[in-house]
Amino acid sequence: MINPILQTTGLSKRFITNEIFEGIDISINDGKSLAIIGGSGQGKSVLLKCIVGLIKPDSGEIFYEGSLLRGKHKQKFMNSFGIVFQGAALFDSLPIWENISFKFKYSKSHSAKERRQLAAEKLDLVGLPRSSLDLYPSELSGGMQKRVGIARAIATKPKNLFFDEPTAGLDPIMANTISTLIREVIQELGSTAITISHDLNSIRKIADDVALLHKGRIEWNGPIKAFEKSTNTNIKEFISPDST
Amino acid sequence: MILRWFFQIGTLFFNFFFSVGNLVVFIAKILTSGFIPPFYLKEVTTQLYKIGYTSLPVVGLTAFFTGGALALQIFEGGSRFNAESVVPSIVAIGMIRELGPVLGGLMVAGRVSAAMAAEIGTMKVTEQLDALTTLSTDPIKYLVFPRIIASIVSLPILVLVGNTIGVMGGLFVGVTRLNFNSNSYLLNTIEYLTFDDFLSSLIKATIFGFIIGVMGCYNGFFSNRGAEGVGRATTAAVVSSSILILASNYFLTELLFKP
């Protein structure tokens, strides 16, 4: 049996009296791409933030490479991933090249020239012109910002990639382009990926496995092919809302 | 009805103590993480420019007009008991001990504290703070600590410049409107000033700088609910830092000039 690279057991979170999710058990194998889906307000983004250590869960444990995430091991995990936020979360006050190479800005390993070169290479990878290097985030469209967000996430060639609603707010054509780009990036880096989304077309492109988060619980978990054929009412409703 | 009243009072007290506790934890975090490497010196320099240099015109103008108004008031008040000659020394003492640091602090609080809260608050609601964390950069070390250090360093310098301009404002009005001789005005100003006056001004300015930095960053850091939340954080930053400056000014005066 293959040991999962990332695993959560009994993860729970509530905000004051509002329970977000409880007893979340998910696992993902090395090199696989998992999509966590669910309707709006189901706590998908909170779950992702708990996994990456931005929000502290109330209970439950997270294991990375078989060890509990804490101390130095947590630091190792923090350095192992890149994340693309819902609104890209680019730093307004920095030009694009500094956004992409931010991780190396204060390290002595890369000079400013090397960081600029790195940013240019990543821009090539996400299909943006090098003339964007000196622009500021506010000068880019939503789709371009997402691409820069992806470029920043892959700047360190991370072992793990996380995407929070990568196609939210984009038109269908741009959403399709971004989904294809994500798939390509995951394959090229051989990364393990978790994507939060409710965009079915995007999930079909990106994911190997799907987990459905519904009313604070993982209601269904399995490969994408089984997901499409599932008889689960909530999945059916998710796939074709009018047919239920 | 009574229960509801008690509930509201309870909520009010709970929120107050929660905020105070949160603020104390925030300050403790700044003090514990800020002095551990890496240090973002470039950020400190940028903030020194933003907070210190760009506040100079506002602080200078405020001090100049306040010094002038003070000279007119003291001249008019002093004339009631033939003490017009005290104008230079009272303007200097009043500016340096009290009005320079307080008005300088309030002006910088209005400018800088609001800007800090708005900038950090926007970064919070657009997940830029989260992005910093995932890029192995502690937002407190990278954003908060440089701003607080820059405020602490900038304000005494601004106040020192403001004090000088304020005294010059008094001199200008004294010479042009009240028929003082410029040499005797300046001699009178210097004669009655002591080192303690300058020291107290700088101590006050340093503490006000800390208050401005902390309240600006704190309110930005804990803002929420989108644009409305950022707006609220900005207002709260200005109001809380202004009140804290005025309150701490009283206690500092008690402490520094015990009667």
Counting helices, strands and paired strands, the structural category of chain A is: alpha/beta
Give the overall shape of chain A.
globular
State Rg of chain A: 18 Å
Number of helices of chain A: 9
Helix content of chain B: over 70%
The order of strands across the largest sheet of chain A is: 6-7-8-3-9-10
Your description of this structure?
The complex is a heterodimer of chains A (244) and B (259). Chain A is of the alpha/beta class. Chain A has a domain of 77 residues. Chain A contains 9 helices and 10 strands. In chain A, strands 6-7-8-3-9-10 form a 6-stranded mixed beta sheet, sandwiched between helices. In chain A, α6 runs parallel beside α7. The longest helix of chain A has 18 residues. Chain A is globular. The model of chain A has no long low-confidence stretch (mean pLDDT 90). Chain B is mostly helical. Chain B folds into 2 domains: 36 residues; 219 residues, no CATH class. In chain B, 85% of the residues lie in helices and 0% in strands. Chain B is built from 9 helices and no strands. Chain B is globular. At the A-B interface, β6 of A face α5 of B.
Topology:
The complex is a heterodimer of chains A (244) and B (259).
Chain A: E1 6-15, E2 18-28, E3 33-37, H1 44-51, E4 59-64, E5 67-68, H2 71-78, E6 81-84, H3 96-100, H4 112-125, H5 142-153, E7 160-164, H6 172-189, E8 192-197, H7 200-206, E9 209-214, E10 217-223, H8 224-229, H9 233-239
Chain B: H1 2-34, H2 41-52, H3 56-78, H4 87-125, H5 128-134, H6 139-176, H7 182-191, H8 195-221, H9 226-256
Helix pairs in contact in B: 1-6, 2-6, 3-4, 3-6, 4-6, 4-7, 4-8, 4-9, 6-7, 6-8, 8-9
What's the quick description here?
The complex is a heterodimer of chains A (244) and B (259). Helices cover 35% and strands 25% of the residues of chain A.
Features:
heterodimer; A: 244 residues; 6-stranded mixed β-sheet; 4-stranded antiparallel β-sheet; B: 2 domains; 9 helices
